Amino acid sequence: RGLTPSPLLSHTLAATAILEAGSEEQKQRWLPDLALGRRIGSVALVEEDGLPSSAGIQLAGQACAEGFQLSGKKCSVADPEAADLFVVAFRKGGASGPVALGVIDAQSPGVDARSFPMIDATKRMGHLNLTDVLVATDSVLSGEGMGAGSVDRLLDAGALAVAAEMGGSVDEALRITVEYAKQRIQFDRPIGQYQGVKHPLAEMYVDAESFKSLVYYGAWCFDSRPEELPRYASLAKAYATEAFVRTGVESIQIHGAMGFTTAQDIQLYFKRSKWARPMFGDAETHYERVVAQRGY
Fold it and tell me: Which of 16, 92, 217, 229 is the most buried (most CB within 10 A)?
C-alpha cells in the first residue's frame, strides 16, 4: 500500500511479454537478468492516438536482411530513461502487416528515450523515438504464445496492473484521510464525527473494495479464463480510475486547503491519480470497450 517510485510495473510487463511470447532461447537470453534486476525492462506499445489496442499500432517494421528496421515514435512509455531494453510493438512489413513484438536494447543506434515533466514527480514517463533501429530476427518474439491477440493480452495485463497499483494507493489515501479526520478538531469535535466527512470516507471504502474485487477476478482470468480477460480488465481499470480520482479529490477536500501543499502527503495521491487515469486507457475508453464486447 502506498506509492512506489520504481519501474516495477513496466519491468514486470516487459518480463511478462517475453515469458508469454518468447521462444525458449529468448527466455533464457533475457529473463534471468530481468528476474535478478541486472537489467531493467519496459514496454513501448501505445502510439500518438493513445488507443490501448493492437488496432492502434501503426509503427511499421521494414523487412531487411537482418530482420526489421523501425522508424517512428512510441508514446506513454514508462521509465524510458531507466530501461535497459524495450519490448516494442510494431507491424511486420508495413502498416497493414501482422503485429509483432521485438526486444530492443536501449543502447542500440537510433534509439532515443526521453522522459518529460509530469505533475506526479514520483513517476517517470516519456517517449521512445526510433530512427532506423534494427530489430534482429532473433529479437522478434517467436514463441508458441505469440499470436494475434498477444499485444491486446499484454495491454490488458497493463490495465490490470495499474488498477492493482491504484488499489494500494486508494487504501493508503483512505488511511491517511481517516487519521486526519480523527485528529482535526473543529467546533470542539473531531471532524470525523460529522456526516459531511463520514459519508465520503464510507463511499471511498466501498469503491476501493468493489474495484479490488474486479482486479482479483481479472487477474484470475489472466491465468485461468483468458476469454473473459478483456471484459474484466476493462471493468477493473474503468472503475478503479473513477474511484481513485474521486478519492484524490475527496481526500484533498477533507484535508482542506493544506491538503494541496507539500506539507501533506495526501497531495501525492491526488497527483498519482492523474498519472493512473490515462494509463492503458481511461475509464471512458474501457466502458466503451465493454459495451462493444456486448455487441452494442
Answer: 229
Write down all domains in the chain, each with its CATH number in brackets.
8-139 (2.40.110.10), 150-293 (1.20.140.10)
Q: What does the pLDDT read at residue 4?
A: 84
Query: Of 255, 257, 252, which Cα lies nearest the Cα of 269?
Result: 252
Q: Which residues of 144-177 are buried (b: 16+ CB within 10 A; e: fewer)?
A: ebbeeebbbbbbbbbbbbbbbbbbebbbbbbebb
pLDDT band at 189 (very low <50, low <70, confident <90, very high): very high
- The partner residues of 126 in beta bridges, in order of sequence, read 77, 115
End-to-end CA distance of the chain: 38
pLDDT bucket at 195, cuts 50 / 70 / 90? very high
User: pTM above 0.85?
Assistant: yes
Which H or E run includes 207? Answer: helix 195-224
Name the pLDDT band for 146 (thresholds 50, 70, 90): confident
**CA 122 – CA 36 distance, rounded (Å):** 23
> Could you tell me whether strands 67-78 and 41-44 are parallel, antiparallel, or unpaired per DSSP bridges?
unpaired
Rounded Cα–Cα distance for residues 276 and 213 (Å): 18
Cell of 148: 494475434
pLDDT above 90 for 47 = yes
Residue partners of 80: CB distance under 8 A and separation at least 6:
42, 113, 114, 115, 124, 125, 126, 127, 128
Give the per-residue pLDDT at 30. 98
